[in-house]
Amino acid sequence: MKIIKETLADDAKAYLKGYIRSADDTSAHENYPAVIVVPGGSYTHIPEQQAETLALAFANLGYQSFYLRYHFIGEKTPLLPAPVVDLARAVALIRNHAEEWHIDPTTIVLAGFSVGGHIVSLYSDYWQTDQLRTQAGSTGTDLQPQAVILGYPVISPLLGFPTDEATLAIWTAAPETVAADQHVSEQNPPTFIWVTADDPLVPAKNSLAYAAALAEHQVPYELHVFHHGPHGMALANHLTAWKRDADQPHVAHWLTLANEWLNDTLSQSDQGSAIRNDQGSRQIDRQSADAASKHA
C-alpha cells in the first residue's frame, strides 16, 4: 500500500491523504472504486486518527481510500464554501490521477461525518453548478459523485447546530444557502444516511429533513436511525471509541449495511464491477487500532 498526500489549495491548508493499493496488490482487478472520507471536528479541526481508521475500513472493503483535510474556521472568512470547494478539488484530483492510482473514474463515493456530512451534503446539492465548477477550476462532469454516505450529519445550521449565532456568522453570512435540505435536486447522488435518535450534539432531525428532501426529489436513499449512541461514533467500535459509550456493537452494523447498499447501488448503475467479492471478510489494518479519537 502506498500512502500519498496532495495539497488542494495555494495556502497548503487543505490536502487529500490517500491509501493506495500498489501495482503488486492489484492483480485481481485493474481498477478499484474510490472513497473520500470527510471527517467532522466542528470546522475547527479533524480527528486525524479517526479519519485514517475510517479510510482504512473502506480500504479493507476494496476501495482506494482517502480522507480530506479541508479549510477550518480562521483559515477562510467566512468559512463556507471553502470546504466544499476543497472537496470538489479532491474529486477532480482523483479523476485526474485515476490511471496512476488504479481507480475506476466512474465510481467515486463520498463519506461525510458530522460537519463532514455538512460538506458532503452541500457538495451533493451543488456539484453540477457552474459556480462550484468555477471555484474549483473544473469543467465537465469530473466533479460528479456516484454515491454518498452521511454519518450523523449536520445538514442545516437552522436545525440545531451550531447553537450560537456568533459561530454561524463565522460559517456564513447567508445561512439559507448552506441549508443542504433546501437545495436537493434530482441530480443528487444516491445517499445512505445513519444517525442515532438521541444524538446530543447534532439533532437527528437533520438526517430526517435531508431524507425527506431526497424523497421529495425521487433521489434513491436509505436511512437508518439507531435508537441510542453519542455523537461522533465513527465505526462505533473500539477502534474509534472516544468514550465507553461510543463502542456500540449494534450501531457498528452501519458499515456492513452501507457496504451492502453500495454494492447494490453501484452495480445497478453498472459502476460497481471493481469491488472485491471478498471485501467484507478482511480485518481493519491494525496500524490504526491503537488510538481512540476525539469525537467528530
Automatic annotation (TrEMBL):
The highest taxon in the source lineage is Bacteria
Q: Which UniProt keywords apply?
A: Hydrolase
Keyword Thylakoid in annotation: no
The molecular function terms of the Gene Ontology recorded here are:
hydrolase activity
Where is this chain compositionally biased, Polar residues type?
A: 269-282
Domain BD-FAE-like intervals: 27-213
Per the record, which residues fall in region Disordered?
A: 269-296
Q: Does the keyword Cell cycle apply?
A: no
**What InterPro entries does UniProt report for this protein, alphabetically?**
AB_hydrolase_fold (IPR029058), BD-FAE-like_dom (IPR049492), GDXG_lipolytic_enzyme (IPR050300)
Mind telling me what this protein is named? Answer: Esterase lipase
